[in-house]
Amino acid sequence: MTETTKEQLVSAAAQLLDSGGQGAVTLRAVARRVGVSHNAPYRHFRDRSALLSAVAERDLEQLRREFESLAGEGSGAAEALRQSAGALIAYAREHPARYRLLFSDPDLTPQPGLGDAALAAFEAFTRIVSWCQREGVLPSIDAVSLTGLIYAAIHGAIDLQLGGRASDAKGLASIDATVALLFDLLRTVETPGPRRRTQTGRGE
Amino acid sequence: MTETTKEQLVSAAAQLLDSGGQGAVTLRAVARRVGVSHNAPYRHFRDRSALLSAVAERDLEQLRREFESLAGEGSGAAEALRQSAGALIAYAREHPARYRLLFSDPDLTPQPGLGDAALAAFEAFTRIVSWCQREGVLPSIDAVSLTGLIYAAIHGAIDLQLGGRASDAKGLASIDATVALLFDLLRTVETPGPRRRTQTGRGE
DNA sequence: GATCCCTTGTTGACAGTGTCAACCTAGGGA
DNA sequence: TCCCTAGGTTGACACTGTCAACAAGGGATC
């Protein structure tokens, strides 16, 4: 299977991200790894940022596929949600630098395709959340808002951990613990609908 | 008041972060702005990463002070929590590049002082959460875990917004909306202990 | 077949960067 | 007086992103 040069460049960039992080991805190193001249990448990408965006776009597409395959599975909504979170976390653990690229890279020139890919992945995730709501696993509030909250919490837990400030010292709980706590709490939330018995706590 | 050169360098770096983002902070540009030679910063910081860490440390210290002053205020636990989140969000909005530096910078060599500062800020925030728990505003589960979740959600919401993927297109809700939703949900969680209904109506 | 042009690649250059090494210079003990 | 140290300087080096100019090759068109 002959990989086109453009694909080779993207793959090489991804490998460099994995092995040395953001800083290791220099256009010249990528070119060297593929075996072309230091300026060949410019035939395929406008600049360094565009190359990195291509990596991000590819990975976002992959994530979206994972989410969608989970959404179509038979093991139930709650399990799909749990596994989606697990997939995201696993990806972040295996490819921290690439994960950062997807969601939190500051100096990546905004590319149209990248935004679309991010949106598509988010929507696939939203569909799983909606499914959970229909099954009564999650409170029936606005699905996009709820997805935003869940996604933010998962991403935040991942990002703080990857950042490594107060590295797993007693400061921050593990990603899994945080996400598990989130799901636990969401399950016991009083939903406005008739589905769940709500208990108006009278206090003090 | 005569600022020492070291302080001037940190301030200059912070200004450059604000005006041009991570990429704009070059050691030489910082030196130029202060009016010293391109190698003067090396007399005060081991390398570029150390200079950036100094900025982060300074800002973390400032945040910690804010949290602690809020914790000692008389307007109540719920209000302190709300204002803490607000302070964090405001800081992130005003100084996005610096915010990133604090929590999510990948290629910042781990500095001992930086981790300590991050931990201290986190602990100050934890104290506010504990206060909320004592007042019945937050569910009485393990304070550190709960703080981790709240902090992760806030940070995630901020980070996703700053990242600008799927920029405020319908994809992601606003930071404030996400945080408000989080607090709303947490307030209605079935807690084992006694509870109080607090109506902190957030404006628009 | 000859011509043209577009794609993909090349080499060469340039300014700018982080960082190292060597040198300078005041000022304060000994 | 001497010397050490902290702070600052100049000069160099390898490396980077990016621009410009040039070369091969293969379709499409005549």
What can you see in these coordinates?
The first copy, chain A, has helices at residues 5-20, 27-34, 48-71, 77-94, 96-104, 112-134, 143-163, 175-187. Chain A is an all-alpha fold and 204 residues long. Chain A is elongated. The interface between A and B is large, with 59 and 61 residues. Chain A binds a DNA duplex (30 and 30 nucleotides) through residues 5, 26-28, 36-40, 42-44, 47-48.
Could you provide a short overview of the structure?
Two copies of one chain form a homodimer. Chain A is mainly alpha-helical and 204 residues long.
SSE order and pairing:
2 copies of one chain form a homodimer.
Chain A: H1 5-20, H2 27-34, H3 48-71, H4 77-94, H5 96-104, H6 112-134, H7 143-163, H8 175-187
Helix pairs in contact in A: 1-2, 1-3, 3-4, 3-5, 3-6, 4-5, 4-6, 6-7, 7-8
Chain A binds a DNA duplex (30 and 30 nucleotides) through residues 5, 26-28, 36-40, 42-44, 47-48.
